[in-house]
Specification:
Blueprint lengths: L1 H28 L28 E2 L7 E2 L7 E5 H7 L5 H4 L5 E3 L13 E3 L2 E3 L2 E3 L2 E2 L18 E8 L13 E7 L7 E9 L5 E9 L8 E13 L4 E17 L2 E16 L21 E2 L22 E17 L3 E20 L7 E3 L6 E4 L9 E22 L2 E3 L2 E29 L17 E23 L4 E20 L5 E2 L8 E17 L2 E19 L2 E20 L4 E18 L13 E18 L4 E13 L12 E10 L8 E10 L2 E2 L24 E3 L2 E12 L2 E8 L7 E6 L2 E4 L4 E9 L1
Parallel strand pairs: 7-10, 16-36
Antiparallel strand pairs: 1-2, 3-9, 4-5, 5-6, 7-8, 9-10, 11-12, 11-41, 12-13, 13-14, 14-15, 15-17, 17-18, 18-21, 19-20, 21-23, 22-23, 23-24, 24-25, 25-26, 25-27, 27-28, 28-29, 29-30, 30-31, 31-32, 32-33, 33-34, 34-37, 35-36, 37-38, 38-41, 39-40
Length: 779
């Protein structure tokens, strides 16, 4: 399979590269028209607006080519590097939380940014691309736990809604596309030192420029590296080392080839090693039943706000990734822009942690209403909490090839921008293991739990699998412009083919395939569409409607012995208005979205009330409906603002809300920067982020039926909610000559509250007041 993929990918790659060089030869000897009628070719890169540091005018995430945001008929929120720098962000979430429709996924940001897992309009997503290449592992539809180093980031584009072109395997809520920094042909560099109480202790360097021996600015390089070893607010610490090595060679201004390598070595220890299991247990027979709201600090005996709470202090996790990209961009006969690239991505994770992972707080339901009315007595004993050590090793190899073509045409007052392309993503997961060991129970009143891990040879094997997955994409999207580009219509279609083969192996040696281990291969294809209309009454206002969809492949088991390939498709209807103010320095946008994800595998409530046998599972839909408002850019030349508000309802087919998904979000960030006078170079900001009340758990299984329905078929309800919360952040910076000093203070008021609930076994504490002092020297 792998060899066939490489052969099939290399042949067109070489032929198209040769064709592009032919186009380069043509452009090198042909005089390009300089009249106003000359048509500018589409670009696969974007530029940053200089009108205001927080306002960006273009994005490339809709169809992999740059386009003005006011002409783009979907919500794309852009985080520029200036905002990341001002916030001193360790992870993209620390800046993304100020954007509409974005909330924290489970585990996001709690340890200085383990996992770039966001909720997009209620849909939890781990969909991530870097420079248009997918970092989403298929068929699991997840990504690695390490974050992409902010120092390497030029900008982050948050695409709201399904985008089958950018990331065909993503969830329908949205996806994150990171645009990394590239080599520059002007020599420059910087060194950075960061210190603070939590998530700090970091050194960084960024150097770029031309390589003189090649002359005429043909070849440039960039080298970036960071090293961090820091405490976390929850007990523990992490180490993270990142390196980026880049080269770019220009055949001409329009034809270049770029190589980028990113390497990450991430290690976390103690509670920081388990982002979904590092909080406090929820066993409170008064505050955690009947849909009540938890208090801001734990009430369970033996549990403390940011204590170890039963997790073994020797717990750890290790993540290593290597990513290599090679991309050629150029023109063919001065008529077509072309991008041809490939990526190799290697990932290895070892999880090695012990925590209270056994259910200790089973619920009692009202069989008629599904409401949690109590917790089983004498189950939770704080002096003898069951502890399980879990060990797992996961490998992933990913190969990708992408090829895109774009052009601009104008005739009879009509503009036309067609974009088409194809991609192949092949994931190979060699045999991955997991095993566990039942540890001595923990006494939560006896201090930290520190019991050495037994030898792995004594662990009980749990699973061992091997997966091979190939996903192929063919897409085309065309933007039509009419009436001097005062009306745009976009029409696009994507076809995806998927092949998935899974193998399961038998304990204890995991070398003998289990009976039926080689499941029937899943072979399927699915079509997605994109349709939109956008009206521009003036150059500063646009109104639009868009229908878009995407799909991800999974498997449905209608019977215990039957496996059926299944596409879960996301669909979105979005209505919006975008406006630009003060000569494109400020944008004010609003939208209304109606989203659904079909073919969600759910339990069948009729199975508990039907007099005849019916299937135990059914295919249902989850929906999200809401409104968003955003303001980004400069109110004056010295005052920048980012503000957003979101009202939405994400519900399952029974109308139930989902864990960690609020119905309301709001944020405000104001930055004042002095541009002249004695204080030139000084800036100060204040920010507030708000999240509404959200369920602390998904509907849990009723002990009587073992499902999310009672014996009478009533849907079970979340037993508890976490309270609405808000947090205040502030900071400032001063730049002079080659130096910059900045101070960032998160959670200025040192508020304490639970956030990111994962279940009754863990609600993460929000980190207390956190400060980071950063000094940067440019050279």
């Amino acid at each position: 399979m792998k060899k066939h993929l490489l052969r099939s990918g290399i042949a067109p790659l070489l032929s198209l590269f040769a064709l592009s060089l032919t186009g380069y030869s043509q452009s090198a000897s042909t005089t390009v028209p300089t009249t106003e009628e000359a048509v500018k070719l589409p670009e696969f890169t974007v530029s940053t607006s200089a009108g205001d540091p927080y306002h960006v005018e273009d994005a490339l995430s809709l169809a992999r080519v740059a386009g003005a945001l006011i002409d783009t008929p979907v919500s794309i929120n852009v985080i520029p590097k200036e905002l990341i720098q001002d916030l001193g962000a360790n992870a993209a979430y620390e800046a993304a939380r100020y954007m509409p429709g974005i909330s924290n996924g489970r585990g996001a940001g709690t340890n200085g940014g383990i996992q770039e897992r966001f909720n997009f309009r209620g849909f939890e997503s781990e969909t991530r691309t870097v420079d248009n290449f997918s970092m989403t592992l298929i068929p699991a539809i997840n990504t690695t736990i390490d974050t992409f180093e902010p120092l390497f980031v030029e900008r982050v584009e948050l695409v709201m809604g399904p985008d089958a072109v950018l990331n065909p395997t993503g969830t329908p809520g949205g996806s994150i596309n990171i645009v990394s920094k590239s080599p520059l042909y002007i020599q420059q560099g910087s060194a950075q030192l960061e210190a603070g109480n939590y998530s700090a202790q970091k050194v960084a360097v960024d150097v770029t420029g031309p390589i003189p021996m090649f002359g005429n600015n043909k070849l440039a390089y960039r080298f970036m590296a960071t090293d961090q070893d820091t405490r976390t607010y929850i007990p523990g610490h992490y180490k993270k080392a990142d390196v980026a090595v880049e080269f770019e060679y220009k055949f001409s201004e329009a034809n270049k080839i770029t190589f980028k390598y990113f390497g990450v070595d991430f290690q976390a220890f103690g509670n920081a090693s388990a982002p979904n299991d590092n909080g406090w247990l929820i066993y409170d027979p008064v505050n955690s039943i009947m849909g009540r709201t938890l208090p801001s600090q734990p009430t369970t005996p033996g549990i403390t706000y940011n204590g170890t709470n039963g997790m073994d202090t020797a717990s750890s996790t290790q993540e290593r990734t290597n990513t290599a990209q090679l991309v050629y961009t150029g023109s063919i006969f001065d008529l077509i822009s072309m991008r041809l690239g490939g990526q190799f991505y290697e990932h290895h994770n070892v999880g090695n942690s012990a925590d209270p992972s056994t259910t200790t707080n089973a619920e009692v339901f009202n069989e008629a209403t599904g409401q949690v009315i109590g917790l089983k007595a004498n189950v939770f004993n704080p002096m003898a909490v069951p502890i399980t050590w879990a060990w797992g090793s996961t490998f992933n190899d990913m190969y990708q090839v992408e090829n895109d073509y774009a052009a601009n045409f104008h005739f009879a007052g009509i503009s036309l921008q067609p974009v088409t392309g194809w991609s192949v993503q092949h994931d190979y997961q060699p045999v991955n293991h997991s095993s566990s060991f039942v540890m001595p129970p923990a006494n939560l009143f006896a201090g930290d739990y520190s019991v050495p891990r037994p030898p792995l040879s004594t662990f009980t094997p749990k699973t061992s699998t091997k997966v091979e997955d190939t996903q192929t994409q063919l897409y085309g999207i065309t933007k039509w412009g009419f009436f001097q580009d005062h009306f745009f219509a976009d029409v696009g279609a994507v076809r995806e083919w998927a092949y998935v083969q899974t193998y399961n192996f038998t304990p204890p040696n995991f070398t003998t395939p289990a009976p039926g281990a080689a499941s029937l291969p899943l072979r399927a294809y699915k079509d997605s569409t994109f349709l939109s209309g956008l009206i521009k009454p003036t150059d500063y206002i646009s109104l639009y409607y868009t229908f878009s969809s995407n799909a991800s492949v999974s498997a449905f088991n209608p019977t215990p012995t039957t496996t059926v390939p299944l596409w879960s498709q996301g669909r979105s209807n979005e209505f919006g208005i975008k406006t630009e103010w003060f000569d494109h320095r400020l944008s004010i946008n609003a939208d209304h979205f109606q989203m659904a994800q079909n073919n969600v595998i759910s339990q069948n409530p009729a199975a508990f009330s039907s007099p005849v046998p019916v299937p135990g599972t059914v295919l249902t839909s989850n929906t999200s409906v809401g409104y968003e408002l955003s303001v980004e850019g400069g109110l004056t030349k010295s005052l920048s603002v980012i503000a957003s508000a979101t009202s939405m309802k994400y519900r399952d087919f029974e109308g139930r809300p989902a864990r960690n998904i609020p119905d309301g979000l709001a944020s405000l960030l104001v930055n004042y920067h002095v541009n002249s006078g004695a204080l030139k170079g000084f800036s100060i900001f204040a920010a507030e982020s708000f999240s509404g009340k959200s369920p602390g758990e998904n509907p849990e299984n009723d002990a009587t039926t073992g499902t999310a329905f009672t014996s009478t078929g009533a849907p079970t309800q979340p037993g508890y909610y976490i309270a609405a919360w808000h947090v205040t952040n502030a900071g400032g910076a001063y730049s002079w000559s080659r130096y910059r000093v900045s101070l960032n203070v998160d959670n200025v008021l040192n508020q304490k509250f639970g956030w990111e609930p994962a279940s009754r076994l863990t609600v993460a504490p929000y980190p207390g007041i956190t400060f980071r002092l950063t000094t940067t020297i440019s050279f």
